[in-house]
Design goal:
With about 240 residues, the chain is an alpha/beta fold. The protein has two domains: about 160 residues, Alpha/beta knot (3-Layer(aba) Sandwich); about 60 residues, Helicase, Ruva Protein, domain 3 (Orthogonal Bundle). It is about 45% helix and about 15% strand. It has ten helices and seven strands. A seven-stranded parallel β-sheet has the order 3-2-1-6-4-7-5. Helix 1 packs parallel to helix 2. The longest helix has 19 residues.
Length: about 240
């Protein structure tokens, strides 16, 4: 199960932090690392701080933007210590592990996204996430070091995996969840449809789409459901053009 969980670091400034993250991951038997536009990588400081986890660095994927990095993932969680104007579904690291570490989810990919050391994730990046990932800590000093945050989340996943060694029967007739690339196409289509039928007001476009994302992210649509809804969108667009 741990190979299904992918650590994604966005625009990391210090290469040593990338190495420290790799070490934290290997401690907890995690191996999937993706880097979005790192400032310095590869770098000797990253290899030094990895302290033997340089195999994770060698196999790390490098991407130009977050949307590309998570395109094949089915569930995306963005680590954030701050609140948002529009509330978003939240899970602690332990709740994340309890919810998804079991054989019924073996075919899904999960992205655990961590932002910049100084400023975290931007709003448009959090919009790509299904959940905010929270690490309970001191409310008056809640900013964790990047590697420490990854270590806490990886630890919760590792412990839950160790506790769930008994395989549970899954429902193999279920449709696979839509991945991030399919969901982005869905949201683009939704946006165009509600604009075509005159529902969307330009001044409220961003707010409405954020709320609609929250609704459909919470539903965890599978591929068949996405196809059905997009069929409805096409029907509405064709009917509107008559």
């Amino acid at each position: 199960m741990l190979s299904n969980f992918i650590i994604v670091l966005v625009e990391t400034s210090h290469p040593g932090n990338i190495g420290a993250v790799a070490r934290a991951m290997k401690n907890m038997q995690m191996s999937q690392l993706r880097l979005v536009n790192p400032k310095f990588f590869p770098h000797a400081d990253a290899t030094s701080r990895a302290a033997g986890a340089d195999d994770i660095l060698r196999h790390a994927g490098i991407y130009a933007d977050l949307q590309t990095a998570i395109a094949d993932c089915h569930v995306v969680l963005g680590a954030s210590a701050r609140d948002r104007t529009i509330s978003w579904p939240e899970l602690t690291a332990r709740q994340c592990a309890e919810k998804w570490v079991n054989p019924n989810h073996h075919s899904k990919k999960f992205a655990l996204v961590f932002g910049r050391e100084s400023s975290g994730l931007k709003n448009y990046e959090l919009d790509l996430c299904h959940y905010l990932l929270r690490i309970p800590c001191n409310k008056t000093f809640s900013s964790l070091n990047l590697a420490s945050a990854v270590q806490v989340v990886s630890y919760e996943l590792f412990v839950t995996t160790s506790q769930n060694q008994i395989c549970l029967p899954g429902n193999h007739n279920e449709e696979p969840l839509a991945n991030a690339l399919q969901m982005q196409a869905f949201y683009d289509h939704l946006h165009q449809t509600i604009a075509d039928i005159g529902f969307l007001h330009p001044d409220r476009s961003k707010s409405i789409m954020r709320r609609l994302r929250r609704i459909f992210n919470r539903a965890e649509l599978d591929t068949k459901e996405v196809d059905i809804l997009r069929g409805i969108f096409r029907f509405a667009q064709n009917h509107n053009n008559k």
